[in-house]
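User: I want to check something. If I give you two sequences, will you return the structure for each one separately, not as a complex?

Assistant: Yes, each is folded on its own. Here is the first sequence with its structure:
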Amino acid sequence: MRTPKGLAARLLDTLQGPLGRRLLRALVAAAAPWAGVALAATGSDAGMACRAQSTATAPTVVELYTSEGCSSCPPADRWLSTLKGRPDILPLAFHVNYWDRLGWTDRFATPEATARQYELAHQAGESGVYTPQVIVDGQDWRSWPRLPKPVGTAAAVAVTLVREGGLVTAQVAAATGSAARLSGYWAVLEDNHESKVRAGENAGETLRHDHVVRLYKPVAAWPAGQGTRAQLSVSPGVPQNPRQVVFVVTDPATARPLQAVSLGC
């Protein structure tokens, strides 16, 4: 909408005159207290640790084994993205590297993700692996996008995550009735990734990914009664993509997740 020339000139004169100056001073005075609050909150947060506590009922851990070089994987990737923001589910996208030989190197694929998939298959008595594969709470699950009904039993393990600068600490305490030994792993997840695939089975496609595991670090088993304290160094500052630091406690005999907690700060 264009303003008539005469009206615009009168408005400019008013803003430059005594009335305009008084109005500007009033606006600055009104905004000053709120600006102080915002600055104080920012400065306060910078000097404080952030933390997350596990819930009484463990979330369902959904692992997707996928690859940008696999033509049947994009529907599974899209489905995993729909699980974003659900407090009752922890989705993780492990990108494997054995499809890179088809002509497209998946930049998210790691040998560690591939090794984990093979290790879970060996533990389950399976002779091979496939993509897309969905593993729910340690068990192969071929009925996705439907998920199994949550059991809803109280978790026998409690986890607290605390981040101070570039160091994240997990404190694990086991309740009565937990497994005799526990194990676990760290995972750093990122959302909102996009790849324009130029070769391989998905050539010409634009693929979008959430919950991408950018770092996977197992934690060796420990006696449950002793609890444990594990630490992970992460890069300081604000990442380019939304990031979560996750700690998952598992039963080393079955690989079944017993508790999981995510830190988004």
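And separately, the second sequence with its own structure:
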Amino acid sequence: MASTKEIKNRIKSVSDTQKITNAMYLISSTKMRKARRDAEQTKPYFTLLRREIHRMFAVSKDLKSRYYDYAVDENVKGGRNAILVITADKGLAGVYNQSVIRETLSQIDKSDEYILFIVGDYGWRFFRSHGSNYAADFQHSMNVPSLAMARDITEELLEHFDRGEFDRIYVCYTEYEGSMSPGIATHDRLLPFDIDDFVPEGKETARDASAVFEYEPDVETVLERSIRAYLVGYIYSALVNSYSSEQNARMMAMESANENASELLASLELEYNHLRQNAITQEITEISSGARSLRRKKK
């Protein structure tokens, strides 16, 4: 049986750990709120950009782009695929990282050839240790998402895509589902775009669809630049969703750790009080026995 000193040291250790997990919970909560706020501020721009791209195709029926496919079949397996994988830099976030990794492995199984572009040290370490084919010179830490980070990733992916190194680009990330959910690991096709990808939310009026616009220098150039800008927003959204889900999963993990620590502290304190009460009872018994012995000797 542990002594009262050992239990007291254990109580202190658990209390110190609980302070750390509580601080991590508060930090993750602050980071998540800031990321969601930044995403909401940029969302209107990319929503309008999406609508304008749809308008270009509605006005110019014969418009073509290497980033755009009118007949993309998601059920077709095989091909040369590039997969952008978004994980965290570290663990302590429940099943967040493992869910994304499982989703990525399922996409690898559907490819004849593949190459991984990994964001986050956790995923980089996992796929390197498992001998997966990944782009070694593509190294991005999962810091606070920013448009600059999304722009750098977009340029690197498009550089390979424009050279014809792969047929499709997918992104595996975690979709943010609210504060009570750790998020859902999912995948989206980045390139080539499908015709339905740019259908705006809500109803498009006939006037908007039939309006005549002039594009400088030409509609193809405007379309290509618009699609590249939209792709930056798409990747930025995936980064923010993953980052928010990571912080939320860490909050849930730290909250669970806090609850476990509280239960453990209650159990330790109860055990400590029992031992302390037993020690006091034993001391009282010894004092009473000694007093009786002294009275007998005097008689």
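Because they were folded independently, the notes below concern the second chain alone. The helical segments are 4-59, 96-109, 121-129, 147-162, 206-210, 219-298. The mean pLDDT is 79.
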